[in-house]
TrEMBL record:
One of its GO terms (molecular function) is L-malate dehydrogenase (NAD+) activity. It comes from Patiriisocius marinistellae. Substrate binds at residues 82, 88, 120, 151. The keyword NAD applies. CDD domains: LDH-like_MDH. Catalyzes the reversible oxidation of malate to oxaloacetate. The lineage of its organism: Bacteria, Pseudomonadati, Bacteroidota, Flavobacteriia, Flavobacteriales. Its EC number is 1.1.1.37. This is Malate dehydrogenase.
């Protein structure tokens, strides 16, 4: 199993590290435009192999896509991150050009690959990858919901004063400060609805803290987060590489599912060896549907800024 990660910055390197530590891939190719940067990150990571006990070979490349040839899965993290006070949508001007070039180069060398898009604004960059590459919809996946759901579980555990392993929850919708839709109604602690343990007001606080999870970290760090994003990407990669058939919320091209069309937005999907094996169309309440529709309107407005 060969995996390419483009962008050897904070998220790309973290993602490569988690993939290697999980030890399911034979090779990870890290690519960056900055001369020597990916090679340096790859060498540093390879020097953790004996310490962390993995056999995955990590190779670096400065913009040489021939090294990525025949990758089974390619992850795009190249692009600029936001600074405190910015929205993800403000990154479109620079990141659209990068994602367009990178996705075309990747597919040229790996026509059968599955693409995972991480660069922001992620839902719009995933849509752009569709328009650029023309890959079938099961082979283009945007990562956002898996991360947002991990943050939702973190906030739920905090409110419940419970271990994170005891809670479950999912966030759908756009990967944006306003557009996320944490499904509080379905959140559970060991199969028991969380409303049995905390008030609706506390749950509303959890929902709002989840939606601004990325902005909160950006305020603290001065740039956006990388550990949980890297771990979330590695989870999607592993589900595909190991044909796990696990459900994750991912940004996917919708063609009528959830009453939405011609955009990529986060909904639950089954991930396996074919990428998106199935879009899971769960029954939402009227209010949840309305929130998802409003979120979709936001994503479509950002898509409208693309020069296609
Ligand atoms: N979807 C999500 O959940 C998340 C998305 N992000 C996004 O991921 C992106 C990367 O974030 P970080 O890793 O923190 O940024 P970073 O600045 O640490 O790394 C980005 C890397 O991309 C490289 N790069 C730029 N143009 C390139 C090109 N044409 N080809 C190859 N490499 C190129 C840069 O040299 C840099 O090393 C940002 O757009 C950020 O907003 C970050 C966290 C979560
Ligand atoms: O907040 C950001 O800009 C990066 C990101 O998407 C996240 O961490 O959720």
């Amino acid at each position: 199993m060969k995996i390419t990660v483009v962008g050897a910055g904070a998220v790309g390197a973290s993602c490569a590290e988690y993939i290697a530590i999980k030890n399911f891939a034979s090779e990870v190719v890290l690519v960056d435009i900055k001369e020597g940067f990916a090679e340096g990150k790859a060498m540093d990571l390879m020097q953790t192999a004996s310490l962390n006990g993995f056999d995955t070979r990590i190779v670096g490349s400065t913009s040489d896509y021939s090294k990525t040839a025949n990758s089974d899965i390619c992850v795009i993290t190249s692009g600029i991150p936001r600074k405190p006070g910015m929205t993800r949508e403000e990154l479109i001007g620079i990141n659209a050009g990068i994602v367009k070039d990178v996705s075309a180069s990747l597919v040229k060398h790996s026509p059968n690959t599955i693409l995972i898009v991480v660069s922001n604004p992620m839902d719009t960059m995933t849509y752009l990858a569709h328009k650029t590459t023309g890959l079938p919809k099961n082979r283009i996946i945007g990562m956002g919901g898996a991360l947002d759901s991990a943050r939702f579980k973190y906030r739920l555990a905090e409110a419940l004063e419970a271990p994170i392993s005891d809670v479950d929850g999912m966030v759908i919708g756009g990967h944006s400060d306003k557009g996320m839709v944490p499904l509080t109604r379905l959140a559970t602690r060991n199969s028991v609805p969380v409303t049995e343990f905390i008030s609706q007001d506390r749950l509303d606080e959890v929902r709002e803290a989840t939606k601004v999870g990325g902005a909160t970290l950006t305020g603290l760090l001065g740039t956006s987060a990388w550990y949980a994003p890297g771990a979330a990407v590695s989870g999607l990669v592993q589900a595909i590489a190991c044909d796990q058939k696990k459900i994750f919320p991912c940004s996917v091209l919708l063609e009528g599912e959830y009453g939405l069309n011609d955009l990529c937005i986060g909904v639950p999907v089954v991930l396996g060896k074919n990428g998106i094996e199935k879009i899971v169309d769960i029954k939402l309440t009227e209010a949840e549907r309305t929130h998802l529709k409003e979120s979709a309107e936001g994503v479509s407005a950002t898509n409208g800024l693309l020069e296609l």
